[in-house]
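Researcher: For the annotation table, I need structure tokens for Efflux RND transporter periplasmic adaptor subunit. Please keep the output clean. Sequence:
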Amino acid sequence: MKKQAAFILASLLLVTAGCSQAQPEAASQEIVKAKVVEVVTVKPQTDPVLLQLTGIMEAKRDAVLPFGTGGTIASIGAVKGAHIAQGQLLATLDTRYYQKEVEAAASQVTEAAARKSKTLKGANEEAIEQQQLQVTNAQNQLAKAREDVEVGERLLAGGAISQSEMDERKRALASAEISARNAQLALDSLRRAAEPEDVAIANASITQAASQVERAKKSMDDAKIEAPFAGTVVDIYKQIGEQVSPGEQMIHLVDLSEIKVTLDVTNDEIGLFGKDSKVQVESQDGKTGEGNVTFVAPVMDKQTGKYRVEVTVANPDESWRGGMMATVKVPRKIDGFLVPLESVGVSQANHYVMAVVDGSTVKKEVKTGQLVDDQIEILSGVSAGDQLLRSGITFYVEGQKVEAKGE
């Protein structure tokens, strides 16, 4: 019995000793076991990299056309949706009043021209003869007045007339002298050619009358609407017979032969857009076309902090319409390698990645470049074929045992 108990105790001791030795070995195996990590392999960029920006399509030209004057609408020569040629008459006002203004102003021009012609020719012979008779009559009156004064002086000396009667004869003489002089001046004026002042007055009258004609004709022109460009009628805001004021909206016209996409571009990306450079444009329904950069703002917009860029695309079938969303794609140059953004960490002022080398993590400082969607360009610090931790690099330290999984 004692021998059996001793044997059992010895067996228990052996088992206990064996277990105590196995536990440290298992613990050691758990410590050195490598953690499985997802990696990305650094590869040269073979596919083209595009910058994609979104903008809104606009018509090449978009105008709301008014009348230049007020009145009653007499005719409308277009309907909504109609394709209009440049210069086509779209609407008119009742122009009877303006037509009378033109006719009245034209008659004033004719009258002013006639007056000028008469001024240049001078007075006719009949007027000169009549004035000559007036001069002769005035001279006869003057001669008689002088004779009356001479006789009166003798009569006054003899006491035959009073001093007041003598004064009256002198006043008659003075009046006769003035009349004779004025008659002669009038005759001289009729006989001489037109003075420069008279010609200037006549010219001014013609100019004023001609200006009235131009104003009346402008009113006639303002009473009609012609298409300033070929396009499509979007809307008509008034009907025949309605009153309209000068400048009031009448017809909405758009030109969709080309569409324009306006973009807001950051300072880092503006260098990709050169005037007259070619870009790809894709509409929201998947249609693509080639666009031309027609405008690049020389200064930044203070409100948005970005540069305005305009891209023009031919639209001969007018399948692209104003208000649609469009994506503009511009090739961008990549000088380094593109890796996921979360593969790059920041340590103080430097960027770094965690590479996997021989089953351990290695911290590498890198120089970064441009952001491309959810990727970042690495200009230096890595080589093609390097395996980098895809994400969570802040949870790893250099030299940590890992097992790479992924690319």
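Researcher: And a one-line annotation?
Model: The longest strand covers residues 50-66.
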